[in-house]
Amino acid sequence: MRMSKLPNPLRLLPALAGVVALALIASGCGTSKADEERGRAPFIQNCGTCHTLAQAGTSARTGPDLDDAFASARAAGEPDSTIEGVVKGQVENPRPSTDNPAVSMPAEILDGQDLDDVAAYVGRWAGVPGAAPPRVPGGPGAQVFASNGCGGCHTLAAAEAGGTVGPNLDEVLVGMPPAMIEQSIVNPNAEIAKGYSANVMPGTYSTEISKKELEQLVKYLAESTSKGGGSK
């Protein structure tokens, strides 16, 4: 689920959804062992850089907005399992299939249990009116961290987050001044952590997070990593 004004065939997802859904219903396909709660983290890590989903706190626009894509199906009373099957089918067999990430979702981005869990998660939440990230303890900064899906990409002990797509915040933020923490959020390519490449982290948080929320997040990160190793 991983950019020009070229037409993006991924935006045909709603139409494809109907076709795939009929096939899935006819075949009785399902993922009864899926864990939708576990699916949130791998969704954020693997899909949130391209897709919007309110409950995940992601707002990327490279691929379709999944809330918009499935809103009509949800309103028509389609069950979670139908949306789940559509998502799983699209990941297993991206349409169209090209080497251009601007027009095609990467193949094999998820498989096995991760795919089952992510499909179930999207099936549960895509297009649900009023969906929002879960509330978390730890104050307003912790909520900003959770609501924007930061834990899906970063490890932070205070948030009980174990993402590995981006740097371990318990390590890289120790002793970092608040101004530099803020820069790492709003302009992540200004100074890239060792072992990571540019553009791993979206550079859009300066517009997606309000000034107040940014201040809360920076304060939370600074306090959580002040002694190294994080805190709970």
Your description of this structure?
By secondary structure, the chain is mainly α. It has 2 domains: 9-125, Cytochrome Bc1 Complex, Chain D, domain 2; 140-224, Orthogonal Bundle (Cytochrome Bc1 Complex, Chain D, domain 2). 42% of the residues lie in helices and 3% in strands. It has 10 helices and 4 strands. It has a two-stranded antiparallel ribbon. The longest helix is centred in the first third of the chain and has 15 residues, at 13-27. The protein is globular, with a radius of gyration of 18 Å.
What's the quick description here?
The protein has two domains: 9-125, Cytochrome Bc1 Complex, Chain D, domain 2; 140-224, Cytochrome Bc1 Complex, Chain D, domain 2, CATH 1.10.760.10.
Write the layout of secondary structure elements.
Elements: H1 13-27, H2 40-46, E1 52-53, E2 58-59, H3 66-75, H4 80-92, H5 112-125, H6 140-147, E3 155-156, E4 161-162, H7 169-172, H8 178-186, H9 205-208, H10 211-224
